[in-house]
Amino acid sequence: MKLAFSTLGVPGLPVPEVLALATAHGYHGVELRAHPEEPVHPGLGPADRADVAAAFKATGVEVLGLAGYAKVAAPGDDQPVLDEIRGLLELAHDLGAPFVRVFPGADPDLPRAESDATAARRLGTAAEDASALGVRILLETHDSHRTGADAIRVLGPVGHRQIGALWDVMHTWLGGEQPQESYAALSPYLGYVQVKDIASADDTTPLPLGAGVLPLTECVDVLCRHGWDGWLCWEYEKRWYETAAPLPELLGAGREHLVRLLNEAA
User: Fold this and answer.
1) All residues at 6 or more sequence positions from 128 whose CB lies less than 8 Å from its CB, including other chains
2) What is the pTM of this model?
């Protein structure tokens, strides 16, 4: 498997410094948080996009994907959501990124079937743009659809190869799903896996990998047992937890922990 980290852990850090961290600590790729407060976002012009793509190519580090914030199950008109996804897809294409992350974001007060249908409809429409641009849209296990069982209620009806799943191991755990159950549900759709660690269900402040309660060993075991050889991406949520330790000083040990888990599971 290849290893990456998300720029959510280094808020606002310029791309050259992100790439220096990835190179220094042996990460194969980076997931870019695609938000206006970050250096890379859909508002970038052609020249800036070309510069970012060239910087990644020069270092040999891959752009794993763009972590966008479109909410495909949210109430309201379809077009603004589709426009947001289109912007992410175009940016991913220009940067050579294979994946774009979207959230579910359903209103808990609406019937579940209605929100599922909304998400499936929008993803089905966006799949045509995704195909044309050679990018895959991944629905993250998050918020209203935090388990694999939740996600496949949307992904199954879409049934398009350019629409897949991003397995966030924290959210499936918080949803009460075992790693084997999550993998069984998501494996036909799985784009990549976000790993992290936390102290408890009540304290989700990010911790170094292996220092918390999340079943990382079990997740890696099930992936290896089934021969899955995609990406593991460390999403360290520093942006939302200012008191968390700085990610750069944790990256080396984090990579070593993941490599150890992979070696033990092999």
Assistant:
1) none
2) 0.98
